Amino acid sequence: MAMNCIIIDDDKMSRKILEEYIQRTDSLKLLHSYANAIDAINQMHTLPEPVHLIFLDIEMPEMNGIDFLNTLKQTNSQIIIVSAKDKYAVTAFEYDVTDYLLKPFNYARFYKSVDRAFKKIDNFMSVKSLNNENTTSEEIFIKKNATLLKLNFNDILFIEALENYIIINTFDEKYTIHFTMKAIEEKLPPNKFKRIHRSYIINLNKIKGIEENSVLIKTNEGTKLLPIGKSYKEDLIKTLNVILK
Predict the structure, then answer these.
(1) Cα–Cα nearest to 110, from 77, 80, 85, 89
(2) CATH number of 137-239
(3) Coil, helix or strand at residue 185
(4) What residues does each domain of the chain span?
(5) 0.70 exceeded by pTM
(6) Alpha helices in the chain (DSSP H)
(7) What secondary structure letter does DSSP report for 208?
(8) Of 23, 41, 72, 76, which sits most exposed with the smallest number of CB within 10 A?
(9) Could you report the per-residue pLDDT of 147-167, keeping only the tens digit for each?
(10) Contact predicate 144/175, CB 8 Å
(11) Contacts of 120 (CB under 8 A, 6+ apart)
């Protein structure tokens, strides 16, 4: 499978280098190269094929890379940031980007990022394919090495983000996979799971209590205290069957 990709970068030389690297990579197909984010956001929907991967610069006039990410409310596209400065890295990874390429970079570093994106898409497609077979399924399949492992929803306690990975915590074991929080959230039933923080998704049935801005989850090591983000707390309380005096 070839990944369809686009470039969004106002620097002509940077676009040229990326275009050359993409041309040398059999697993990539360049759909379009944009000189600014405004053209990209207005024209992406006219592309003949879906976009799997976006190479995105941060510092651009009128609409910067972060502004562009804010417009992508629902997307399965992988994002690789391409920037001359590392000061945006922390902010970028809050958007579940796949990687952060610091200019200048060589082909080896470029290919490493592409391979990381390809593995994420491969994992996503494996989960999507299996879940689509039965929309009322009570389990999810995850890729562990060369094996597809079945996890029952009821066995999952919580899921946490770890840089470019997620950790699925069950009562007996932890599974670390190359996936994003956004992608796994879309695969979980919303009546069973709720995101309470940019780094945590919990199984609602595993809540033992709520203390101010924390949720208590029972694990095999005792009680785990997970933070509730301010923007998530109200939605969590509405979801629970709460009796308020």
Answers:
(1) 80
(2) 2.40.50.1020
(3) helix
(4) 3-127, 137-239
(5) no
(6) 12-23, 37-43, 65-71, 89-93, 107-132, 181-187, 230-239
(7) E
(8) 23
(9) 677 888 888 999 999 877 889
(10) yes
(11) 78, 98, 178, 179, 180, 183
